Amino acid sequence: MAMLFVEMQTHDGHEGLGLSYSKRAGGPGQFAHAAEIAPALLGEDPSDIAKLWNKLCWAGASAGRSGLSTQAIGAFDVALYDLKARRAGLSLAKLLGAYRDSVACYNTSGGFLHTPLEQLLVNAAASVERGIGGIKLKVGQPDRALDIERVEAVRKHLGDHVPLMVDANQQWDRPTAQRMCRIFEQFNLVWIEEPLDAYDHEGHAALAASFDTPIATGEMLTSVMEHGDLIRHRAADYLMPDAPRVGGITPFLRIAGQAEAAGLMLAPHFAMELHVHLGAAYATETWVEHFDWLEPLFNERLEIKDGRMIVPTRPGLGLSLSEQARAWTREKVEFGTRP
Ligand SMILES: [Mg+2]
């Protein structure tokens, strides 16, 4: 996993912190692209975020409008929003216009495929005890019976009232997904996530139309256009955009607007430190994924209470980089002149 951070400062002393990331390969590429396009921001008004997003996109136009190049833009875009909110003395959620001051959250990191069943039950119970509202399990084992056994065991262990979701991470083909979704209907799941290939919109749409259990997908998509295509196919009940992955808050808000107009529910993927704000600014209740992987990078911690994640009231994202984040920094480049 690689993180790309942008620390931005204006001549009158306002600051913004932005981030993007890559799981597996891609981090050095994002960094290189960010370093090439960064000078386009010098001398600009940081309030004009949408204009600057376009300018950064044009600076790397031949690299395309999705994927790695826009993910590099994402770090600048988040920093510009952080700066604007901090300058206004508002949390990012308040700057955007929040509907609520906390979001429903669920735990992902206790239920990976390789986690033995006994440990899975211990992790799930501990997570609920800690105040994290829902539990997500990975499914998609080569042995389908094992998936069913594990979901059944967790449902029994936690009782009927705990929200439970499963995530197949694109492991099934269409006939398998049909069978598994049918079997999983009995467990009253909040959703079944990525049952099929992330770009198989027709397949996801057929599942969404066939079963009561909502279908969730969208985390792998990397642009507004890709999400628009998914929405037009009615391939998801829960849309799962990931702000850094789609190029920042500017594209995320455009996706959220389309999702809202289509009557979809929203469950942003990963980066809870950012998505807690974006989830609070969506019209209907969202689920934000509790993932503690990024915690060592920041001095602040999110407060979890009664199944919900509290939106920080500190200005901007409410985040500052930790000493640990600086110690782990491998490459760094500076542009402009310090005020
Ligand atoms: Mg997932």
Automatic annotation (TrEMBL):
Record carries keyword Cell inner membrane: no
Location of the Mandelate racemase/muconate lactonizing enzyme C-terminal domain: 117-214
Superkingdom of the organism of origin: Bacteria
TM region positions: none
GO terms for MF: galactarate dehydratase activity; L-altrarate dehydratase activity; magnesium ion binding
Keywords: Magnesium, Metal-binding
Keyword Metal-binding attached: yes
Alphabetized InterPro entries for the sequence: Enolase-like_C_sf (IPR036849), Enolase-like_N (IPR029017), Enolase_C-like (IPR029065), L-talarate_dehydratase (IPR033978), Mandel_Rmase/mucon_lact_enz_CS (IPR018110), Mandelate_racemase_C (IPR013342), Mandelate_racemase_N_dom (IPR013341), RHMD-like (IPR046945)
Active-site residues, Swiss-Prot/TrEMBL: K138, H269
Binding positions for Mg(2+) per the UniProt entry: D167, E193, E219
Cofactor: Mg(2+)
Cofactor note: Binds 1 Mg(2+) ion per subunit.
GO biological process, one term: amino acid catabolic process
Site residues by UniProt (Increases basicity of active site His): D242
Name of the protein in question: L-talarate dehydratase
